[in-house]
């Protein structure tokens, strides 16, 4: 029997509904000594008169999505819109909170899946560079099989494993350790590629040096990394999942790199083309909510944006109900399934 490993225990994967495989429920993306992008130092709350600047550049206040009451309120809206499962892809260094996730899951009734492993080099704990590949793999494996530290809360996903561009040697060691744990546990491996068009292919080349089995590997952030259908098709040929996970983030002002971000309609244009070329079963959709300005309480789209706005748009743009079910239910469920 295949199951999904949630923070409250294993659940039968049959009968589950809409799944968003790459979100952040409790995280702190500003928790690094190195400034990220054009971040503002301001701790001011988000208001109508500063929302645009905060959304565009991200303030210190904006970067903390770590309030349990906010998370419960936002995810209740997600559940009411039809959400069934949500993946918190918050890895070590991003403010992961296992016990907090359990509380959110209990209070909302949602199935919450927690990630494992480490984010990219700017978020690495100081001792990480001194640890061996075997030591790193053992920690990830233990988090999937027995739980994080003394919490007993188990991860159901390995990732998001963070890579920069070019890839740092410690990041490479973490990725290869994550592959080891992925092969040992059967949990899916999710990769955050560096912000360069070459980065996804480079990451997959490293994975394929360790294993020929890539059908449970997820390449995140396609929509801020690859911008031509040919590049997407080339990556699809490696066998990984292509995750379009920035739905709702439509500003052309991307604070972390000189990137022209697509809007939701262009994301669907690429996804439709990939489906038409036989890759429907290798595509994942999500929103990667990781800022307060993404939450409805603070004026953002909220976790239910895919359900409320994108799915109806899909049905107007050449997708049928079977396509929607494949992309939002079947694919993420299959990716997340493990055998206990």
UniProtKB/TrEMBL annotation:
List UniProt keywords, sorted A-Z: Hydrolase, Metal-binding
Is Zinc found in the keyword set?
no
Pfam families for the chain: PTE
Q: Could you list the residue ranges that cross the membrane? A: none
SUPFAM superfamilies reported in the protein's UniProt record: Metallo-dependent hydrolases
Q: At the top level of its lineage, which domain of life is listed?
A: Bacteria
Kindly give the InterPro entries that the UniProt entry links to this protein. Answer: Metal_Hydrolase, Phosphotriesterase
Q: Which PANTHER family match?
A: PHOSPHOTRIESTERASE-RELATED, PHOSPHOTRIESTERASE-RELATED PROTEIN
Similarity comment text for this entry: Belongs to the metallo-dependent hydrolases superfamily. Phosphotriesterase family.
Please state what the protein is called. Aryldialkylphosphatase
The lineage is: Bacteria, Bacillati, Actinomycetota, Actinomycetes, Pseudonocardiales
């Amino acid at each position: 029997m295949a199951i999904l490993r949630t923070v409250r225990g294993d659940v039968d994967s049959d009968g589950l509904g809409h799944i968003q495989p790459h979100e952040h429920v409790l995280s702190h993306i500003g928790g690094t000594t190195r400034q990220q992008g054009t971040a503002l130092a301001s701790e001011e709350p988000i208001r109508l008169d500063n929302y645009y600047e905060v959304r565009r550049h991200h303030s210190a206040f904006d970067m903390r999505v770590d309030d349990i009451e906010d998370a419960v309120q936002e995810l209740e809206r997600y559940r009411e819109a039809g959400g069934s499962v949500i993946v918190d892809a918050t890895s070590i260094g991003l403010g992961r909170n296992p016990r907090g996730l359990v509380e959110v899951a209990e209070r909302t009734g949602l199935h919450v899946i927690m990630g494992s492993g480490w984010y990219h080099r700017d978020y690495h704990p100081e001792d990480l560079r001194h640890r061996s590949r075997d030591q790193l793999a053992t920690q990830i494996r233990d988090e999937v099989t027995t739980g994080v530290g003394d919490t007993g809360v188990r991860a159901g996903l390995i990732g998001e494993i963070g890579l920069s561009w070019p890839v740092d040697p410690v990041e490479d060691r973490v990725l290869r350790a994550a592959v080891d744990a992925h092969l040992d546990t059967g949990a899916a491996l999710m990769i955050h590629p560096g912000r360069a068009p070459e980065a996804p292919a480079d990451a997959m080349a490293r994975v394929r040096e360790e294993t020929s089995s890539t059908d449970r590997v997820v390449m995140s952030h396609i929509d801020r990394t690859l911008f031509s259908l040919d590049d997407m098709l080339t990556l699809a040929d490696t066998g990984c999942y292509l995750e379009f996970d920035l739905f709702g983030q439509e500003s052309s002002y991307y604070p972390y790199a000189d990137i022209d971000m697509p809007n939701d309609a262009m994301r669907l244009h690429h996804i439709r083309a990939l489906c038409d070329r036989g890759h429907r079963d290798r595509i994942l959709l999500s929103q990667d909510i990781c800022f307060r300005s993404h939450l409805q309480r603070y004026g953002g789209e909220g976790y239910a944006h895919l359900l409320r706005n994108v799915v109806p748009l899909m049905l107007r743009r050449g997708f049928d109900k079977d396509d929607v079910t494949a992309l939002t239910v079947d694919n993420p469920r299959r990716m997340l399934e493990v055998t206990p």
